[in-house]
């Protein structure tokens, strides 16, 4: 595997080394940001 990327049908993910040497990529952060905004929007709609 040449690149580790996070993102599954279930949501944002990231893989980090045990020592924390690998940080989330810009792509992983963008996926997480989109998911957070989407969930927040749904919460606002449900709250009414």
Automatic annotation (TrEMBL):
Report the SUPFAM superfamilies cross-referenced here.
Flavoproteins
Region: Disordered, residue numbers: 1-26
Q: Read off the InterPro entries from this record.
A: Flavoprotein-like_sf
Q: This chain belongs to which protein, by name?
A: Trp repressor-binding protein
Question: Which species is this UniProt entry from?
Answer: Raoultella planticola (Klebsiella planticola)
Q: Recite the lineage of the species.
A: Bacteria, Pseudomonadati, Pseudomonadota, Gammaproteobacteria, Enterobacterales
């Amino acid at each position: 595997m040449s690149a580790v990327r996070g993102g599954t049908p279930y949501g944002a993910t990231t893989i980090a080394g045990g020592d924390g040497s690998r940080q989330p990529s810009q792509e992983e952060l963008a996926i997480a940001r989109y998911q957070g905004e989407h969930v927040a929007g749904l919460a606002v709609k449900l709250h009414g």
